[in-house]
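Readers of this paper often ask what the protein records in our data store actually look like. Such a record has a labelled line for the sequence and another for the backbone structure tokens. Nothing more is needed to write down the fold, since each code stands for a local backbone conformation. The remainder of this section carries one protein's record, kept here as part of the documentation.
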Amino acid sequence: MVAEWMEALPRLRQQVGERNFATWIEPIRCLRDEQGLCLQTPSRFFQEWVNRHFMVSIREALAAAGWPAEVRVTVAAEGAALAMPESALPAPSVPPPRPAAARSAPKIGRLVADYTFDSFVVGLANEVAYRAARAAAEAPGQRYNPLFVWGGVGLGKTHLINALAHEALIRGPRRRLACLSAEAFMNTLIASLRQDQMASFRDRFRDLDVLVLDDVQFLAGKERTQEEFFHTFDALHSAGRQIVLTSDKPPDAIAELEQRLRSRFGGGLIADIHPPTYEMRIAIALKKAARQGLNIPQSVAALVAERSGASVRELEGALTRVLASAQLRGVPVTEELADRVLGPGAERNTAITIEEVQAVVTDHFKISLADLTSHRRARVLTFPRQVAMYLSRTVARAPFNSIAEKFGGRDHSTVMYAVQRLEERQGVEPALGQLLRSLGTQLQDRHRI
């Protein structure tokens, strides 16, 4: 063992704390070679975590011990022994953990490798959900339990829960974690029932440290699955284990969901994700391209953000079309190319105008155009305003920023929220869906005359 490293260890223990020291510093093996000091870690996750969180403290402690030169962190060769000799350190207050590479925690489901916190774009539309997910990953079961994240299709819920799961495993490689859809949970339950293996099923799911269940609205109307999940939820929650759920609507809006489950889902933190703002959409496009090794111009990202739909998934689809076109043609990604691939823009592709939508809505609700486009927030105005914004997007197919401009110069994120809100409400309010269809038909009929 390198003498400078041995001398730096007591200082590191004091700087990072006993728990971090036992988890992240003790398993490191320090070697000296022609390039300097090499800190060998048990795994890639371990290496990334040490680089991200402890390298400043490590360099400071080594410099104080007389080693100001190069220090690098690597992953030990498979099978390499990383455990420190007992004489290397003062006796720790807890037994030193086994190297992370040797740990094997049972996991249910498969995580998406690229869905991490680092690749998640944070903004006003998702900041609360993001911060709650990070807190739950850093201290599972201690804060925001259960954590219920809801939002429209394609807004980043699955990305966020995968990031939470990745982070929870980085911080605790031995954690027993399941990350799967509600449908997969039900299918596993059915298979266990058919094979008379319910005891094994319950052991697997009720002995977890972290349970992440995506699309829990799928449980609606499935009495046997709800019954089993209710007992699984109670077993985990009473043991202080972390539960994370996602849905396309809040608990109270999930039809045919048992009241006792609704109550438990709402017993922690409910965090919603809205459609991304225009600025967020540009940032997402830039980051998605960068993860493919491409630095696209800001003007291209802005065009993709404007010409795609409200969801992140639609934005990704538009970006993919632009990047694929450039690659197949062997040309650079330019604004001109993006314009050709994505078309001339929704507003120019339809003859129905935002003004026509406003006229139909004001006539139906018996209000003035000035009231419709004002910034007054009375209920008698906010609902017609949301209806008009929704129809401007779905029937007139106008860009968000154009709609926002026609409604008193609002921010386009307001329009995105109105569209998402009415999409959600239609699922539980049949009369609303009928109204929107009726006004949409009226618009189309009126334009044909």
About this structure: Strands lie at 29-33, 36-41, 71-75, 107-108, 147-151, 177-181, 210-214, 242-247, 269-273. Confidence is low (pLDDT under 50) at residues 78-106, 345-350. The first strand starts at residue 29 and ends at 33.
